[in-house]
Amino acid sequence: MAFSERVSRLKSSLIREILAAAQRPEVMSFAGGLPAEAMLPKVEWAQMPAAMGQYGMSEGEPALREALAAEARALGVDCEASQVLIVSGSQQTLDLAAKLYIDKGTEILLEAPTYLAALQIFQLFGADCLTVPLQADGPGLGALRERLQQHKPAFAYLIPTFQNPSGVRYSEARRDAVAAMLDEFDVTLIEDEPYRELNFDGGKAQPIVSRLKKASWIYTGTVSKTLLPGLRVGYLIASPDLFPHLLRLKQSADLHTNRIGQWQALQWVGTEKFKGHLVELRDFYRVRRDAMQVALEQHFGDLADWHVPQGGLFFWLTLKQPLDTRTLLKPALEQNIAFMPGEPFFAEPDANPGYLRLNFSHIAPERLSGGLERLAAVVRQAQAAKVA
Amino acid sequence: MAFSERVSRLKSSLIREILAAAQRPEVMSFAGGLPAEAMLPKVEWAQMPAAMGQYGMSEGEPALREALAAEARALGVDCEASQVLIVSGSQQTLDLAAKLYIDKGTEILLEAPTYLAALQIFQLFGADCLTVPLQADGPGLGALRERLQQHKPAFAYLIPTFQNPSGVRYSEARRDAVAAMLDEFDVTLIEDEPYRELNFDGGKAQPIVSRLKKASWIYTGTVSKTLLPGLRVGYLIASPDLFPHLLRLKQSADLHTNRIGQWQALQWVGTEKFKGHLVELRDFYRVRRDAMQVALEQHFGDLADWHVPQGGLFFWLTLKQPLDTRTLLKPALEQNIAFMPGEPFFAEPDANPGYLRLNFSHIAPERLSGGLERLAAVVRQAQAAKVA
């Protein structure tokens, strides 16, 4: 069996296996990033034109590209519809970017921690991952400058708004500084923003790509966290020098994104109805975030430290006594609790023990306390065993 | 700008540019492989469960996997639902296969001619393409044996049923012989069957994968030619040794295929309603195929040779006086006619001048004659200019 060299780096996906285990109905899952079922909006299909059944353009539906460009301009991103490419969920942006940039040994720059599935696809293509530790308001600037002085990464992949997994939102000052540094060293920015609209406490977060003066960029988003993930509709907006390459890569990957989902997304993006839905969504998730905070203080106050996330879908816990949280997975599942160990979110998992990512969007608040109590007991037992 | 090495092989897609030009309403297009608008079935969405809006499994919807496995078993393919992966159109199968097998310099085996977009993605990943010329009833067996004796290709990619572009359907004897030879040399088969159901004149064509005794295999199909291409729903069925790798590659590419389209496909696959639709579709396209044959005899009888295709969507013309048919594209478009030059369907385009691929599904029969007359005039003019 002669597979490609990259297949030797094709790891079994922890996400997939946990989600599989977490699908047993008796399991309470803090693992995934699933929207709450109750907040999936009711959508109508009756008005969809029959033409949406025919082949479409690789770029995506023109009206949807216009609507997304208008949204991005409202955020301060200087762009035209011609720079918008509709993708099969924003995960596909990462696949296209990997194809565009990464050969075996290509250096790229990532946050530590960073999005697990991004790490997987970049490493699959053979990337060497440089990392910059995240602080409470963004990446450490000293470390960032040092990496850029000593290396020439093909791109920097950043999730500046309610980062997955850490929940960090870069401050305005940090955004300016990061943009200036990427311009100075002429490093392409890939800015991933699935969680931008899940903002519970207000505050500004203008995209970093809008602050660039020189560097190339790809900005990517999705309707998966705000509308319906099952549509598999995301988008990227790219600087004009990158767009033609990304378009050809999109075409060779799957010809074009499904038009049914694109049509549905167009019924929402930029509308008053969607704005109303987003207000409801924020209110709903804010209640769950607050309930999670109360339950965490009760059960994890002595076990871990964390910041209250101001948006997104996750709490990121730092255990006071670090241990390999992957070892907690089996005993937790035996208690019918699923969670996401922190190690796989790092390019060097073994060097970063002691973090847990806990989703708060999917579990009803009244069930939280019981679940976290059981998870805390699993942590305590593992720590006691380690000491003994 | 430091792109990956593979981007240097990222060609501008002729398909995309022609389809863009062919979208002008005044252009009569023989270029694409679009289903006739009139034959896109009316579909209902009212009964779709709200749960289809949530994230789904990377494997695809369980019921659809079951239905597709049952269809494949009815064709003689020994498989279970656990071997079925739902993909974002069968183009994605080619992307996943390229990732699974191809490093720079990996040898693969293709028909000559072969599907343009397959050639593009395999070459993007750096494949060295070995080719076997197609004859009227399949690949030349002497040439196939010679390639397999002298090389060890990672896989053979074949389109045995109403091949794109040639329209060739392998005979039963040729299918047996190819299967035996792939077994003998233990070469993986990727069998691509988008056109299987578009069978106008009856006759058997049991999949080659069902005849393998030893070699690994991927069988791929789609609902794009029989239901609605805009759904972007295809599938692959793989031998159990390959499935786990393909599943992980699918997950890293786009998490999962859109569930909306999967649900719609499930309303049709294997049903009496679908069988009835396929009968109508065959009747409709048979009339168009026959009309095309009449019009071709009238206008191209002295210019080209061809076989009447027994299925699929294309006539494949061999000019009696070969010339580079890419040079015909501009004068044809000036006459508001689009067609597909033959050269890009070959791994060595410049060594294979003188073929044209003409689609017959998309143009109303009463318009054919005028269009082919103008195209024939373009060919005559180019040949006269060449002689002069």
Describe, in plain words, how this protein is organized in 3D:
Two copies of one chain form a homodimer. The first copy, chain A, is an alpha/beta fold and 388 residues long. Chain A is 37% helix and 15% strand. Chain A has helices spanning 14-22, 62-74, 91-101, 116-124, 141-150, 172-185, 243-254, 259-266, 272-300, 329-334, 365-387, and strands spanning 28-29, 84-87, 107-112, 128-135, 138-139, 155-158, 188-192, 217-222, 234-238, 304-305, 314-319, 337-338, 340-341, 355-359. In chain A, the strands form three sheets. In chain A, strands 2-9-8-7-6-3-4-5 form an eight-stranded mixed β-sheet, sandwiched between helices. In chain A, strands 10-11-14-13 form a four-stranded antiparallel β-sheet, with no helix packed on it. In chain A, α4 (116-124) links the parallel β3 and β4. In chain A, α3 (91-101) runs parallel beside α4. The radius of gyration of chain A is 21 Å and the shape is globular. Chain A starts with 13 loop residues before the first helix and ends with a helix. The relative contact order of chain A is 0.16. The model of chain A has no long low-confidence stretch (mean pLDDT 95).
